[in-house]
Amino acid sequence: MCREKFGECYGIDISEVRVERARRHALEKHMDGLYFCECDADEGLPFSDSFFDAVTCISVLEHVFNPPNVVNEVHRILKPNGFFIVQVPNVAWFPYRIQLLFGKLPETGGVYLGADWEHLHWFTKDVLVKLLLASGFQIKQVACSGIFAKYREIWPSLLSGDLIIKAIKSR
């Protein structure tokens, strides 16, 4: 779908194994215009300034060491008025609030000894919005995924298990 809209698509991952698997899959399926790169987003992104029309960051920011630096890098590599779609789990989701009330941490990834050790950071709607605004993005839409998403978007900070924000590079 992205290839039809943009012509070229790039994917990055910190894992060499995953990058090679994606390359093989693209070759097997004769998918042209797909490029893959192994890199650590915390160390910077290997693209020139204003290179992309759009960037998606799905289930990534909660795993990096320094989300503000990664968001600043995305801002750098986006063209003016480029779109940034970001998705993170929402720690303020009602079921997680109940878990916290009873002394349990939210379980969104690999749970061991009662804690989610895969996520380095937790996000709420307000925290994610502030992060994007501080990096020079303008918020266009806040959404969520899953069943009844259009109803849960009425109050995403409480009713959504994840947060999806469509932002635009405004400066």
Q: What does this protein look like?
A:
With 171 residues, this protein is α/β, with parallel strands linked by helices. The protein is built from seven helices and eight strands, in the order H-E-H-E-E-H-E-H-E-E-H-E-H-H-E. It has two domains: 1-38, no CATH class; 45-169, Rossmann fold. The longest helix has 13 residues, at 16-28. It is globular. The protein starts with a helix and ends with a strand. The mean pLDDT is 90.
Output the helix-strand order.
HEHEEHEHEEHEHHE
For the record, the CATH architecture of the largest domain stands as: 3-Layer(aba) Sandwich
Instruction: Let me know the CATH homologous superfamily of the largest domain.
Output: Vaccinia Virus protein VP39
Helical proportion? 25-40%
Strand-pairing-aware structural class: alpha/beta
The CATH topology annotation of the largest domain reads as Rossmann fold
Gyration radius, in Å: 17 Å
| Percentage beta strand | 25-35%
- Oligomeric nature of the chains: single chain
CATH class type of the largest domain: Alpha Beta
Structural domain count = 2
- Counting DSSP H or I runs of 4 or more residues, the number of helices is 7
Widest β-sheet, arrangement of strands: 3-4-8-7
Report the count of strand segments. Answer: 8
**Gross geometry:** globular
Average pLDDT confidence is 90
Q: Report the end-to-end length measured between terminal Cα atoms.
A: 28 Å
Stretches where pLDDT falls below 50 for ≥5 residues? none
